[in-house]
């Protein structure tokens, strides 16, 4: 699917934003009826359908059970980032609970086996790839073979962007947060226009850089996971995001510096947690606070909660199943 086709297809999301999403497969209650569901302080209803666009695999059955219980209660699905060693475990979870788990692979860009592993993930039905901590900048051409393969396979690419935690040790460490600045994703989107790209953490602390990269790339998205919302809530500064995500898609005729036909600024943001299942409710609450503080329209909110990622991945939000190719 080329860029124009993707944009035309994405316009179809608006047609389903008014739908009341039914309960997830398995007969669990929806977020609207579930006890303990987070509710908006200004919009009334909880999100009707959620895709958590950023969560990591924890390879034990207790984690699987907690994920299923928690995410079904909120009519939610999860894009689970999985190393090669945990592939079989994740495949079992996806087979058992396809209404909850969406498989993403994870590889080291500097590993000589990375290309082979991407192919292995794709053959096993994984629909996205996660990248983190490269030795070179993300847009170094040495990595283009991996990105080109993801584009060919139609795999969504998720990049850690911004500051990266690390353990203090006596040994030197490769990599740097500066290798993962969000503007490097602009290069990748231009080089690989037939794929979709996501930056994690909204490029913390390079928020403006992340937003400006997204402004000219309609298939570039960011999740706001990690410390960002905690920080902005603590500083009572959630409205700061409206100064960064400032443009609208309908102003291109008067504003030549806005991409004609491109999404509104807030449509580049998707929901994620980057935490365990016990963090879903608190992340819903923080995300809701952000939406309320910035007066994000209801028709945009439903896209951010899950409909955007459903369109990117080809998932039917009513049935939690992948649409026919």
In a nutshell, what does this entry contain?
It contains eleven helices and ten strands.
Tell me what you see in this structure.
With 325 residues, the protein is an alpha/beta fold. The chain has a single domain (3-18, 48-322), classed as TIM Barrel (Alpha-Beta Barrel), CATH 3.20.20. Helix content is 34%, strand content 14%. The chain contains eleven helices and ten strands. It has helices spanning 3-10, 61-73, 87-96, 114-123, 144-153, 184-191, 207-215, 228-234, 240-244, 280-293, 298-313; strands at 50-56, 76-83, 101-106, 128-131, 156-160, 197-200, 220-223, 269-270, 315-316, 321-322. The strands form two sheets. An eight-stranded parallel beta sheet has the order 1-2-3-4-5-6-7-8, sandwiched between helices. Strands 9-10 form a two-stranded antiparallel ribbon. Helix 6 links the parallel strand 5 (156-160) and strand 6. Helix 4 (114-123) runs parallel beside helix 5. The relative contact order is 0.16. Residues 1-42 have low confidence and may be disordered.
Shape: globular
- Helical fraction: 25-40%
Gyration radius, in Å: 19 Å
| Overall tally of domains | 1
Q: Could you give the distance between the termini?
A: 11 Å
Strand order of the largest sheet: 1-2-3-4-5-6-7-8
Q: pLDDT average, as an integer?
A: 87
CATH topology, which one?
A: TIM Barrel
Number of strands: 10
Question: What percent strand?
Answer: 5-15%
**Biggest sheet, in brief?**
8 strands, parallel
Q: In terms of structural class, how would the helical and strand content be classed?
A: alpha/beta
């Amino acid at each position: 699917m080329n860029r124009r086709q993707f944009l035309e297809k994405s316009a179809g999301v608006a047609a389903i934003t008014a739908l009341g999403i039914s309960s997830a497969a398995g007969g669990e209650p929806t977020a609207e009826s579930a006890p303990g569901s987070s509710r908006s302080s200004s919009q009334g209803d909880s999100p009707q359908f959620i895709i958590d666009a950023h969560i990591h695999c924890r390879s034990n059955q207790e984690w699987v059970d907690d994920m299923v219980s928690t995410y079904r209660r909120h009519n939610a699905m999860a894009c689970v980032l999985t190393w090669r060693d945990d592939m079989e475990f994740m495949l079992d979870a996806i087979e058992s609970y396809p209404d909850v788990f969406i498989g993403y692979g994870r590889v080291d860009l500097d590993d000589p086996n990375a290309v082979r592993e991407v192919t292995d993930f794709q053959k096993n039905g994984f629909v996205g790839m996660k990248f983190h901590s490269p030795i070179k900048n993300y847009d170094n051409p040495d990595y283009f073979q991996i990105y080109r393969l993801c584009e060919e396979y139609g795999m969504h690419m998720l990049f850690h962007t911004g500051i990266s935690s690390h353990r203090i040790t006596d040994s030197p460490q490769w990599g740097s947060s500066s290798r993962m600045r969000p503007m490097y994703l602009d290069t990748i989107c231009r080089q690989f226009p037939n794929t979709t790209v996501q930056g994690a953490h909204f490029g913390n602390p390079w928020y403006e850089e992340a937003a400006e990269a997204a402004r000219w790339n309609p298939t570039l998205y960011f999740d706001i996971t990690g410390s960002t919302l905690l920080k902005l809530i603590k500083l009572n500064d959630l409205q700061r995001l409206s100064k960064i995500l400032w443009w609208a898609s309908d102003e291109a005729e008067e504003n030549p510096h806005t991409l004609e036909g491109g999404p509104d600024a807030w449509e580049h943001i998707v929901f994620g947690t980057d935490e365990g299942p016990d963090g879903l409710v608190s992340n819903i609450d923080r995300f809701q606070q952000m939406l309320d503080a910035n007066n994000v329209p209801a028709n945009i909110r439903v896209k951010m909660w899950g409909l955007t990622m459903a369109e990117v991945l080809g998932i039917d939000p009513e049935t939690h199943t992948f649409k026919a190719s």
